[in-house]
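Render this sequence as a predicted structure.
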Amino acid sequence: MERSLRMDVISIYVPSFFIFVGMSIISPILPLYAQSFDVSYTMVSLAISIYAFGRFLADIPSGWLSDKWGRRPLMIWGTVLIAAMAFMNARATTFLEFLAYRLIQGVGSAMWMTSRTTLLADVLKPSERGRVMGYFQTFQLLGSSAGPVIGGYAAGMWGFSSTFYLYAIFGLVSLVITYLWIHEPEGITKRRHEASFDWPTAKRLLSNKSYSLACLATFTIFFMRTGIRSTMIPLYADSELGLNETEIGAVIAYSTIMNLILAVPMGHAIDYYGRKPAIVKSLFVTMFAALAFPYTSDYFTLSLAAVLLGIGTSGAGQAPLALATDATIDEPRGISMGMYRLFGDIGFMVGPIILGVIADNMGLRAPFYFTAILLLVSTVLTQVFAVETYSKRSDDMAKRRAESAS
């Protein structure tokens, strides 16, 4: 399929920017907003995990439906749910009501993310997956970088509810762009897989080492992102260091800005050096970042730890997805991507709950140590058992050897 830069920008990059602005606007205040309902740390963590549970419920059905109905309809209806539930969250009067809206919003997010990931897997060739996903990640991170700062200032000036209204507005912008500009390639529109999700399909996918370890890596990264980045860092900064909402939003933005700076170089590195080295190095550096947070004592040192976290996670989104996509070229695309996202959303869901329980019983430093151990385990398993799927460097070396032999 022939693609132009203009098509990539409009259909791949721009809608993701607005979705991620909205998602990240609430990140600095979400734990504090949940805490305003006078609940425990564990219940605060549930406010984040219930969103992941909605995604967990919808990931595989969304993948299956995207194979049956197409990617675009799922993206449109997913964006509708995201925007509508953001508006309702701003008007929630009880914690239970707030949780219900977060659950439905998670379903909408799964519909959008799974169909978007599947469309990327459809249109990208192995030789460009890391690079284009790097640009895709850049636009997401531009939104994620702006969001926490906007959310922190909005919460400080107009209160916590204002961030959810802003989230709804950005969701509507993304909906308009998706409806007007995103079109599925003709070949994909005409193709409808007859495969359904069942245990033999799952077993076949998980028996693929590259795919299963990509799933493990994305589980670990999502566990860290929601458990540490979205939950424990704001709580630790507020309770242990006494930082305000604006400072917390800035700290989270520093991590995202480092992701932004390194996303494109990492994308090229993923294509050139391979998926496996990028995953291993990302997990390893992220482990050291997790260990650094408990030793921070003020805004400056917390910011340095956040920068290290941003360096570590700079390839954590593109590399596992590229590995999983390469490894499932002959599988039903929507189902394989839905299952891949399922693992990430399990980490998204259980991370805040597990770390919230640990924080309630052992203090706000213990969750960082626990996460570092999990990252180390994932690093070792990937290094030992993962099978590389594509490396331009290896391909070039093989071609040179073949030419020399001939």
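Summary. The chain has one domain: 8-184+201-391. The first helix runs from residue 5 to 25.
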